[in-house]
Design a protein that fits this description.
The structure holds two protein chains of two kinds. Chain A is α+β, with helices and mostly antiparallel strands. In chain A, 37% of the residues lie in helices and 24% in strands. Chain A contains six helices and ten strands; from the N terminus they run H-E-E-E-E-H-H-E-E-E-E-H-H-E-E-H. Chain A has a five-stranded antiparallel beta sheet with strand order 8-1-2-9-10, covered by helices on one side. Chain A starts with 21 loop residues before the first helix and ends with a helix. By secondary structure, chain B is of the alpha+beta class. Chain B has eight helices and 13 strands. In chain B, strands 1, 6, 7, 8, 9 and 10 form a six-stranded antiparallel beta sheet that branches. In chain B, strands 11-2-3-12-13 form a five-stranded antiparallel beta sheet, covered by helices on one side. Chain B has a two-stranded antiparallel ribbon with strand order 4-5. In chain B, strand 12 and strand 13 form a beta hairpin. The longest helix of chain B is centred in the middle third of the chain and has 22 residues. At the A-B interface, loops of A face helix 4 and helix 5 of B. Chain B: One of its GO terms (cellular component) is proteasome core complex. Chain B: InterPro entries: Proteasome_bsu_CS, Proteasome_sua/b, Proteasome_suB-type. Chain B: This is Proteasome subunit beta. Chain B: GO terms for molecular function: threonine-type endopeptidase activity.
Chain lengths: 249, 320
Amino acid sequence: MSSIGTGYDLSVTTFSPDGRVFQVEYAGKAVDNSGTVVGIKCKDGIVLGVEKLVTSKMILKGSNRRVHSVHRNTGLAVAGLAADGRQIVARAKSEAANYEKVYGEPMPVKELADRVASYVHLCTLYWWLRPFGCGVILGGYDRDGPQLYMIEPSGLSYKYFGAALGKGRQAAKTEIEKLKLSELTCREGIVEVAKIIYGVHDEAKDKAFELELSWVCDESNRQHEKVPDDLVEQAKAAAQAALEEMDAD
Amino acid sequence: MEGCSVPIRKTRVYTDHLRENLRTIVIFTRPGQVATSASCSFLRGRPPLASRVSPVASRQSPLAAAPLGFSATDMDAALMGSSSVAMGDIPTTGEHRMGTTIVGVCYDGGVVLAADSRTSTGMYVANRASDKITQLTDNVYVCRSGSAADTQVISDYVRYFLHQHTIQLAQPATVKVTANLIRLLAYQNKNMLQAGMIVGGWDKYEGGQIFSVPLGGTILRQPFAIGGSGSSYLYGLLDHEWKEGMSQEEAEKFVVKVVSLAIARDGASGGVVRTVTINADGVSRKFYPGDKLPLWHEEIEPQNSLLDILAAGNPEPMVQ
């Protein structure tokens, strides 16, 4: 779907004759070039996983986090330009804190997703701002249960059972669709997400990557947190085993 | 929170002294208006004594709403006008207060809010059938005590915010959110307000809840709450008689009994008892006129004349 919008793609405030805003679509391309981000909604919570491509051997393991907590019960995984993502995370944190200060209760996930989407969309309306070059998967567990939202650089926000962004999103989505999410617990979900990310990782093009996993579920007391290390290791082992099986076929 | 000061000659000295956050003291034209060093008892947070009532009619809203209206000439007229009350006049002027009894109780399935109906201006009962239980949203009501104007304005603001919040959330607001909005206004403007409120309602997450927001702006969730001047007489009764998990009829009868005791003992409470019951099925209002209220033991049957009382027993005949 690559089309050149010659002349109509110089400014985010210009429509093309066929009704597209090219700058926003180009922002989407930045997201498509980043490491895969996967989010699934299991029956008791949300699992977020990121294929964090490691560009240099000098980088400390665990730095450059791509999954952030924006509130006690909500997490955000970023795909695309990392610096843009930091801005969105900061805004989401501030929205959530402010909501709780005024209304006295934790911000509902739906409301937070709305606010983040409005903010991202805002930056597609003015010529002096450029759109965010990142997409975001927002997962949270509030009094209406676990919910998963994906917000694209255009400001589009939908609620999902499973969502994926980045290089391997097509393959990831196919894999997610095979899962029976309504019967999966988060413990099992972690393993599935790890398998998906290992599966879509392209060994040839990108060398090393780190798997970042986070969850918010009944087991974590409805708090958003990093998946405990032992579970991550188990998930990695299972994922690698599954890969070898596939290779063996 | 900013207040703004309108320079008023006589009262300025007192208010500036006592409070750096200057209040707008504004005087409506009313016959017999009294401008005294009213602020003293007022600012200490007690309901003003009948003889020293502050003629406050409008305040600078912390949320930058326009002042409710005043006229400079009225101020002068009032100041020049009547002198201090300490001359034997019956105090019948000043701000509308609700010396009041308000009660909120949770029962199994919802909440019942109850209040008396007396609004007094000094010793004059300005409204003997007022409705102190105000709707904030479909499922949350608030009982108001203290300054009538203050609580009305707070209720109006909160209703406005809640309306927007409900639209944004696309579902009814929770009781906790409502109580928090009331509390933020009460706390951030504590120097300017005298409002004791009890917020009660029902939502689908936590069921029936009662939140007490007294003077000063504390917020406290309680299984039952009482407020207003008449509540002093109720602490003992409630401590003794309160039961968890009453049925709806039990709870309604209970609050009526409780409020009628306060009406019997507190001069600033009176009139009828109004109740509002809120539960999953909705809201229902009930009204108990004076003759339907339970009597307390110290209330006696009407007598025709003193002689009847005396003749009741068997007195010794007076022997000449």
